[in-house]
Amino acid sequence: MTRYRELDSGFDRYQFTTSPSTLGERATNFWVAQLAAMDASFMGRPNDALLYFPIVTLPPKVLPDPEHYRTADARDWIIDQAKNHQIVMINEAHHLPQTRLLTISLLKPLHDAGFHYLALETLRNDGKNPMPSGYPETGTGEYTREPVMADLVREALRLGYTLVPYEASEAEFAQAAIREHAQAHNLATFLSAHPDARLLVHAGYAHIAKTDAVMISGANAMATDLIMATHARVLSVDQTELIPMSTASQAAVDAKSRLVRAFLASGPVVFLDRNNGTAWSSKPEAYDASVLLPPSPAEVLRPDWLSLGGIRRKVYVGADGCADRFPCLIQAIMIGQSPRAIAADQFVVLYPSEGRAPLFLRDGAYRLRYTTSQGQVVVERRIDVPHGLGELPPARKP
Predict the structure, then answer these.
(1) CA-CA distance, 92 to 94, in Å (whole number)?
(2) E strand intervals along 68-107
(3) Among 224, 292, 346, 382, which is disulfide-ready with 220 (CB 3.0 to 4.6 Å)?
(4) Do 319 and 225 belong together in one domain?
């Protein structure tokens, strides 16, 4: 971790954690694999993340079936349920940007419904503005280095959300109980100062568990402590229990794949009881609903869900700017933003053929940058979206 933290560049971190020598260290492989997965997602290779660190979750013993449950669009269900809650909590798997799409889709409707505050676990919380420039930079937070999370933050600011940092201090990370309590205390302090605030919280994994039915290293989760302190009405929505892309257990793969096929899920869905309309949860004492995400197609480098539901266009830029020096990082950075700004999109090209994969960009003007593994910028030029788009020709079969 000391060596890792000395590397400021995300590209350098990716090369360090995914190198065979680093991954080959048996004593640290479990931890390095998690970092490699996260770095792969940051570098625009989300499907690689599960190769490095498969999600270790077994399916519940009893899963919903089409005879007793029907599916509903998770976004629509959450919007409807939010009417009766002061706080909506949604979790993510940190190395899977796909678990950020639902929150992005909820930003506008929830803001229209009166949720004007967005609490993000990822934000740096040191008493200073985590975004003095008005957009995510490398110092804004750990997970905001990933372009989909950065897009979530940019969209929230565009809509008028006030961002609420609430992470525990570095000293409070030593024990789970201290960290969870500190997070809850920080949010409770905010709510005490803003008693009428309606709050959207985006956190990781079990932090959003509402009771001690789910604990973190033997400690109450943040949401559990927060509810005990404030008695706020919290809607907790889990996205991490039913991710169908897990390869950690064949039982998990088979069960979750059957679930996708049985319900023909093409987007994030919840399961509603056909008799009484209540939502199904993998852990009903802890979460109000479990969301099933469609599988990410493993056969492509950059899956279409990176369009964020059609908000971003596919932009084929090619790998010519890499000058045959691979791996090569291709980035699109918004015109007018600093060198430390998080790219609107980026991906590392390992082989020339991967240059046929697209960037996914909102309309606007960008600096298109090609950087070698040694940190040398080979080419930098302006690109305007949607003007100048072009499809690369299909690769010829050998």
Answers:
(1) 6
(2) 69-73, 87-92
(3) 224
(4) no
Number of domains in the chain: 3
Task: Report pTM.
Answer: 0.94
**Co-location of 243 and 134 in the same domain:** yes
Q: Nearest 5 degrees, angle CA 164-CA 14-CA 10?
A: 45
- Closest-CA residue to 318 (of 391, 380, 396, 397): 391
For residue 304, the SS3 value is helix
Are the C-beta atoms of 144 and 123 separated by less than 8 Å? yes
Residue 16 domain flag:
yes
**Residue of 15, 13, 18 whose CA lies nearest to 1:** 13
Task: Verify that 112 and 253 share a domain, yes or no.
Answer: yes
Angle between helix 147-159 and 101-112 (nearest 10):
10
Helices (H), 44-86: 46-52, 74-82
At 108-160, the pLDDT tens digits run 999 999 999 999 999 999 999 999 999 999 999 999 999 999 999 999 999 99
- Determine how β-strand 289-290 pairs with β-strand 234-238: parallel
- In this structure, how many other beta carbons lie within 10 angstroms of the beta carbon of residue 132? 10
- If asked whether residues 234 and 143 sit together in one domain, one would say yes
Do 266 and 308 form a contact (C-beta atoms < 8 A)? no
Record the tokens describing residue 356, joined without a space: 């046929």
**H helices, E strands: number in the chain:** 11, 16
- Band of the pLDDT at 53, cuts 50, 70, 90? confident
- 305 phi-psi bin (left φ>0, alpha ψ -120 to 50, beta other): alpha
Quick one: CA torsion of 3, 8, 10, 16, rounded to 10 degrees? -20
Q: Which domain holds residue 146?
A: 69-290
Q: What's the Cα-to-Cα distance from 58 to each of 240, 248, 354, 382, rounded to whole Å?
A: 11, 8, 33, 47
Position 305 in a domain: no
| Of 48, 22, 32, 11, nearest in space to 138 by CA | 11
